[in-house]
Amino acid sequence: MTTLFYYLIFPGLLFVLLVGMLASWIERKVTARVQWRVGPPLLQPLYDIMKLFTKENVVPQHAHLLAFTAAPLIAFVSAGLAATIVGMSIFFPEASFQGDLIVVAYLLVIPPLALILGGAASANPLASLGASREMKMVLSYELIFWTAILVAWIKTGGTVNLTAMAGKGAVAGSVSGAIAFILMLITIQAKLGRVPFDVAEAETEISGGPYIEYSGPLLGFFRMSQYILLVTVPVLVSIVFLGGAGIGRYVILLVIIILAENTNPRLKITQCLRLFWFILFPVGLIAIILAILGY
Question: Which of 101, 114, 176, 185 could form a disulfide with 290 if both were Cys (CB 3.0 to 4.6 A apart)?
């Protein structure tokens, strides 16, 4: 019963979902102000989800029913589980376990893979194109994500426990840690599907890509997983690189994400691949070498 409470209520799904909705509102409000608009009311993210869950699920005639239906649920459950593990390391550090960093990192790969599955199962050319783009993005930014994690692992003495890593202090205070932190900031922008790396959705080009055929509760589950990731990913970065989680650290990271989204144009998929594979990855290798040398 206690485990179920942790996962469903606090620090799991309900808590992180509410915080994610608040973060999404801040993101939309700041974006509106940048564009000289008023922006949505505070409860707009909640209204959006409630509206979606009152709509009908429409499944395309030629879609693969099981894969199309399961994809949003897989994304939601995996994001919620990752959020629970991260939250446990913050609020109940005695419940954290060795290797929870690795588990969370793997869980965070599942939502984009679920999006690829849903897009491919939609039987829509634009959805398939978006799924193809998302697959290429995952193969590119995950390389940089693990490179940055490796630097943090070296700097913290080889620990893969989130509570222990937070106790080691701010990895970003070293030369190699600062480089890895900057790489991670770029990576989380792609991991969250934000501009300039939102090539899989690209509303003006492919009308939302993998999401194009989704509606009703299924789209609602995808949206809720995005809310959860908007909290979980920055908090994870804060723990690993900034010496722990905190409201101030999270707000700073959220502001960076929002500003980057509002001040950059969308890149082409080829530009994204070149950036991650041929520019950021060599920089990451340099950071690893510096970390091994103690810098």
Answer: 176
pTM: 0.94
* Tens of each residue's pLDDT in the chain, 295 residues: 677 888 888 888 899 999 999 999 999 999 998 888 988 999 999 999 999 999 988 888 889 999 999 999 999 999 999 999 999 999 998 888 899 999 999 999 999 999 999 999 998 999 999 999 999 999 999 999 999 999 999 999 888 999 999 888 889 999 999 999 999 999 999 999 998 999 998 877 887 889 999 999 999 999 999 999 999 999 999 999 998 888 999 999 999 999 999 888 899 999 999 999 999 999 999 999 999 998 8
Total domain count, the chain: 1
Containing structural domain, residue 187: 2-292
